[in-house]
Design brief:
Four Helix Bundle (Hemerythrin (Met), subunit A), mainly alpha, DNA-binding, 3-stranded antiparallel beta sheet, Arc Repressor Mutant, subunit A, homodimer
Chain lengths: 244, 244
Amino acid sequence: MNNAWHTEMLAEGRVGDRRIGDRDIVDKVRRAVLMQRLPPGTKLPEVTLGEVFGVSRSVVRKALTRLASEHVIDQRPNQVARVRAPSIEETRETFDARRLVEGEVVALLAGRLPAEPMAALAEQVRGEVAAFERGDEPARIEHSLTLHHLLAEHSPNRVLGAMLTDLVLRTSIVIALYKRAGLASCYLAGDHSRLLAHLEAGDAEAARGDIHDHLNGLEALLDLSPREARIDLKSILGRAPEQA
Amino acid sequence: MNNAWHTEMLAEGRVGDRRIGDRDIVDKVRRAVLMQRLPPGTKLPEVTLGEVFGVSRSVVRKALTRLASEHVIDQRPNQVARVRAPSIEETRETFDARRLVEGEVVALLAGRLPAEPMAALAEQVRGEVAAFERGDEPARIEHSLTLHHLLAEHSPNRVLGAMLTDLVLRTSIVIALYKRAGLASCYLAGDHSRLLAHLEAGDAEAARGDIHDHLNGLEALLDLSPREARIDLKSILGRAPEQA
DNA sequence: GGGCAGCTTCTTGTATACAAAATATCGCCA
DNA sequence: TGGCGATATTTTGTATACAAGAAGCTGCCC
């Protein structure tokens, strides 16, 4: 069994002296999936995770249940949990859902953002641009994620905000999965700053349009051609890509 | 401690010879909350539930985690799980979110429903009308819930469908919670059949409008006046309504 | 050489024991 | 009588042991 990721996961940075809880495991696994250190189909046995994090299966189990409810892993009865591989179909549907929800959120947000959160958003945009220009893709992704996360957090409608948080995560996963091979970065210059300008100006419909354009652009950067042979067969019929 | 609901819950109907699992517990508790047999704030200790269902805390624990992710209960660290009491604010936001999502789902569905699911929808409408006319409110709720559940299930976009399932549940809970005292039923005659007609005719925007009207009507039947003293203080400062 | 049966091993499902935290109770004192 | 504090009880958090099921493997047979 490929056990390279065991050490990788711990190297991610230890939690302080605090006792490690299920939340820490959820965060670390989610992050690892997002960063493609845990490719789709990877098996996540409970004992192994427990050894890695130094806790018993009880804690791991709770973490896995949460990850499953976040759609990060697949958990089937009497079977080892695996990193989920959303289908092309589901990818399209996730983008559609996010267009609807995030569009509404930014429309609600337009002109209603206090100065402080607005500054935080601008800060992320600056960070993203800088990271892109120096070719630091992980940092760029981090800033982009934080930006959309902030939008979700400040949503006047918290129910929609929570849904958006979920959708941002799922979208990021499929972007990492289906990004065209040659592409170095899924960056669309100007999209985010244009959105912020419209938010500040209070133009709800323009902001909604920005989100639509942004997500359309992102989706266009993916390789969503219907050759099913690649991901689906592997996860449905085949085994995990151990030595792939 | 008021332990009347222990027997009520079992009386709901035993699972066959099958071993009782976490899913059964989730279903039963969810249903009991929906039917207001488990009022908001009710404590749900793990051992008690375990005794009621004849399983150990492990199974109960998993069930509680799932119920928390469905927003049916509140689970805070080192504290007994309680039936959730959504605030008035959250109630409004839930309705807004559902208007957005269910509106989109029926718009996508318009004109694209095969005959068989369409017939199933019509069947629920007939059942709802009949139940209303004979004054059988539980049956009417059941049919109404099934109807919206079917819409969610047949959503072409399954991501939105899953979100709608969640929103229908949450809306039902708050309707039960905030229904005006004197009101016997939250029934809006004709709404559902009108929606079905537009779905069959393939008029997406009319169907979306039907959903908006329907949910607006429902929301108007609730008592959402901002006297915070009723629910919020009780759950924030007070104790569970044991003998209330 | 390919396929299948039976067995071994690994992994999850469930129950239970103990530790830690929160809650409730009782008694004390102003 | 009312508030406050220590103690006792309840309840959750975590670890572990055992049972049940699935996956993998060996060796046999065709």
